[in-house]
Amino acid sequence: MTATTIHFVRHGKVYNPDHLLYERLPDFHLSDVGRRMAQATAQYLASNPQTNTIAAVYSSPLDRTRETAGAILEALNTVRAERGESPLELTTDDRVIEAGNEFRGKRIGHGEGALWKNGNWKLVLNLYKPSWGESYQHIAARMDAFAREKVAQHPGQQIVVVSHESPIWSYRHYLETGHPEHWMFLRKTALASVTSVTYDNETGRVMSITYVDPAANVK
């Protein structure tokens, strides 16, 4: 029996002094702390014999995920060079992008973008769906389509996918419960954390889901 493991990594902390909901907007990069978070997770993956044989690295096309993936690639490629292996390169995929959100570019708690102003409250009538943007069903479906494709392409291997909180948790919740809807304040997807899903290559069955937070102590 062979199995494929996908390590879903959330990006590190973003530089966002204006406290905007950046969603899919360009030019939101990792902060200094975020870069250290990415490096901590990269070092965790590269120094662990169970994960430093990762065969491919994918990410969302957004700046913060590509920068986090860059740190992971640098660490993994250092190990690969020591073993005489060719370096890995990053591949981006829109299916693992951040969830769509009608509040993009707004300061949720302040000014005209606040939830209670200008009719914005109508977008948060259902925190379980959510009513303010892309549905959890759609998020989980695109994540699952990506994952199943990559499991078929990488039998018996491990890969990294750098994505975002809502896509990672919605997909995990779907795999664990059969539905992706969840209470958003109970997500367990810390910045630069790793949610690892292992699939049986023959049946496609999910064999295990594990979670680690290598950057928990980064400040």
From TrEMBL:
Organism's domain of life? Bacteria
Q: Which CDD domains match?
A: HP_PGM_like (cd07067)
Which SUPFAM superfamilies does the protein's record reference? Answer: Phosphoglycerate mutase-like
Pfam families to which the protein is assigned, alphabetical: His_Phos_1
Query: What protein name does the entry list?
Result: Histidine phosphatase family protein
Q: Species name for this entry?
A: Bifidobacterium colobi
